[in-house]
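Q&A log
Question type: sequence-to-structure
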Amino acid sequence: MKRHRRRGVAARGLWVACALVLAGCGATGPTAGPSPSPTPASAMAAAPMPTPGPTRSPSPTPQPTSTPDPLVASLYTGLPVTPSVAARPPIAVMIDDHPDARPQSGLSLASIVWQAPAEGGIPRYLAIFADQDAASLGPVRSARPYFIAWAAEWRALYVHVGASTEAASMLLTYGNGSYVVDADEYRWGGPAGYLWRTTDRAAPHNVYSSTPKLLALAARLGAKPATSGAWTFGPPGPLSGRPVGATISLQYPTTSVGYTYDRLSNTWLRSEGGVPSVDHLNRRRIAPTNVVVLTVQFGLLNDGSGKGRLEANMIGSGPALVATGGLIRQATWEKASVTAPTLLFDASGNPVTLTAGQTFVEVVEPSMPLVAQGGSMPPGGGPGLPQ
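Response status: OK
Response body:
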């Protein structure tokens, strides 16, 4: 706030005081004749008062114009973000995909979303929130080892509700930031206030949180921002030359997932169970810019639970499909260790370039039906594709 000082008031008071002194002390000298001496009051009456002129405020001091920090490319999407957003720690949230959990909240605002099989044939999501805020996200579900391995690529705050025996052991050993930063609802929900349970859905499909809450928890637990990304991103290029009619469909044991390329938005419109996938938070159609399909070997986990839990061979390499810009191409995925990134290479062995934007990663077993049509499939098809 600028502060202005008024001039003229003090100077005018000083002028009046001097007039009084001079009038009262009048100078002596020869005169032509006697004359009455003026009284101080008559002198003051005879003295002309100055006419106050307009006061002039000082010119404001020019203030330096603040220059906003230049935007930087997000490690997760390739889109421009502010440096403060880029400095956030990533938040990886286990999200339920049981029919009673749909529609989920926040998936349209995640930077990367993984979907993979779990026990009972019901898949689950791992949603990584890095660039956008979600006032509500969930329902949050329990941890599984292979989801921890994908969250570990970013040393993320890993948010879940409980865990399988093997996942709990993994988090006990590596949940201190060496793989992930463990954020279990059993400890950080309830009175702690970072996660909460709603009353409009039945347990266990009723645990939710938000990015502001989880960012506060990340700061409390010392989670750090990622220092490097896994993928290469590029600009979308001209939309007019892109193909139309490209589709991807895959079948989990209990649900089907489909994507249809939309040239106008340069995204893949997502459906699940034969209906459009819509974010419950903002009623927005879920439409990632990129779709990556990884073929991974799964098997029954012998943990003594009798619940049919799975283990996945997520360390190593395997076939993949990459759908971006209306094109569907064969690729290969590689992951060297639990904390190493999942890298994508094209048929020539070069890193795949994705279009800047959100990416959905669908993880499938070799036996799962997978069909990709249209776009620009190279001769010979791909995993699950007709030859």
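Response note: The first strand starts at residue 72 and ends at 73.
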